[in-house]
């Protein structure tokens, strides 16, 4: 004969301890992220990275991005197994994720994936990735890129979840196979540059200021600008992240550590609210001019005066 199990009753003191632990966790979350918001809306942007090996500095850098994702509700896709040779995994992984998203019902899909190299540090977790994306009426823009003194830099860029993107990434991956004699100095980056020269791809790619989401380091300690470098390419307080392309392996830990220290301290002088940065106005103005130059009508936003109440 089976016995009916009685519900487990916790002693009052245990209930109090559990309640206090839960309250402490919530207080800790809001103390760390005073602007955190909770909603049930599905995310429209995901973050994509890859990392191999056990370098603790790389791991710490990725954690700054994970922190950002947890705070603002972005899914983080992290490749930790090498499938192709080296950096070519970036394009293959992005392509596979886009295919997976396109398999979903349209309302459940991510709309954009933000590729971010793991030699970057998230500096302002208040900054929303959507800030830099084209508005909805610019639906033919499928990839947003930046340039430095070497040309296009593919360390950080958003790409739309769209069949166009699969074609772009597939063409870049196939390039050294179809053209074995081609010189690709920056490997997958050079392949993307070559493919983007084709009109079909070029017409859907837009280049924006590098500082928006791909800023480079400033002084060695991160506390001041480097007078020997272009100011507009250097990270400023309030910017999304700092990227360290081309940093020598023997100086990698030394170079990133001061910036990791700033990011991990969550300093208020760096973690500005989005509205206190230049980006809401600057990005809106950029996309408005982009549409105007191409004869694309922007939606008219009517101002509705709110009634005043005493």
From TrEMBL:
The keyword ATP-binding does not apply. Keywords: Glycosyltransferase, Transferase. GO terms for molecular function: glycosyltransferase activity. It comes from the Eukaryota. It holds the Pfam family Glyco_transf_34. GO terms for biological process: protein N-linked glycosylation. GO terms for cellular component: Golgi membrane. InterPro entries: Glyco_trans_34 (IPR008630), Nucleotide-diphossugar_trans (IPR029044). Belongs to the glycosyltransferase 34 family. This is Galactosyl transferase GMA12/MNN10 family protein. It comes from Aspergillus versicolor CBS 583.65.
């Amino acid at each position: 004969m089976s016995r009916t199990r009685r519900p487990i009753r916790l002693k009052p003191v245990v209930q109090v301890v559990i309640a206090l632990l839960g309250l402490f966790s919530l207080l800790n979350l809001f103390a760390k992220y005073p602007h955190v918001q909770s909603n049930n809306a599905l995310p429209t942007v995901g973050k994509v990275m890859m990392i191999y090996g056990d370098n603790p500095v790389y791991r710490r850098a990725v954690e700054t991005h994970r922190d950002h994702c947890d705070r603002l509700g972005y899914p983080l896709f992290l490749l930790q197994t090498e499938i192709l040779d080296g950096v070519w995994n970036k394009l293959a992984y992005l392509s596979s994720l886009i295919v997976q998203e396109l398999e979903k019902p349209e309302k459940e899909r991510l709309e954009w994936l933000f590729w971010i190299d793991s030699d970057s540090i998230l500096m302002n977790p208040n900054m929303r990735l959507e800030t830099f994306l084209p508005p909805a009426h610019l639906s033919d823009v499928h990839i947003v890129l930046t340039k430095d003194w070497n040309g296009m830099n593919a360390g950080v860029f958003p790409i739309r979840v769209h069949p166009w993107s699969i074609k772009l990434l597939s063409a870049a991956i196939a390039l050294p196979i179809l053209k074995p004699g081609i010189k690709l100095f920056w490997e997958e980056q050079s392949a993307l540059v070559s493919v983007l020269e084709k009109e079909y791809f070029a017409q859907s790619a837009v280049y924006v200021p590098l500082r928006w989401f791909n800023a480079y380091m400033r002084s060695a300690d991160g506390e001041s600008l480097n007078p020997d470098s272009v100011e507009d390419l250097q990270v400023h307080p309030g910017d999304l992240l700092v990227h360290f392309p081309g940093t020598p392996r023997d100086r990698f830990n030394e170079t990133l550590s001061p910036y990791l220290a700033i990011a991990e301290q969550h300093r208020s002088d760096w973690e500005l609210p989005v509205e206190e940065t230049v980006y809401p106005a600057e990005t809106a103005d950029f996309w408005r001019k982009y549409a105007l130059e191409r004869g694309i009508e922007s939606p008219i936003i009517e101002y509705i005066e709110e009634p005043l109440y005493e």
